[in-house]
Amino acid sequence: xxxxxxxxxxxxxxxxxxxxxxxxxxxxxxxxxxxxxxxxxxxxxxxxxxxxxxxxxxxxxxxxxxxxxxx
Length: 71
What we know:
The chain is mostly helical. The chain has helices at about 5-30, 35-60. The chain is elongated and about 55 Å long. The N and C termini lie close together (about 10 Å).
């Protein structure tokens, strides 16, 4: 079973939503400043989305651990 580029991209967006919240929370606890925390989380999210997409597509190619459909 494969996945489309759109699915990989959407998974990246959803994951980065979760990741954004975690990054914001940690940054806020560290900086204690709402503006710096939001800026940090946004920059980190923008950088990480393409890397997640590439990671997802590479793992799609790797055969290890996959089970063939039994039809």
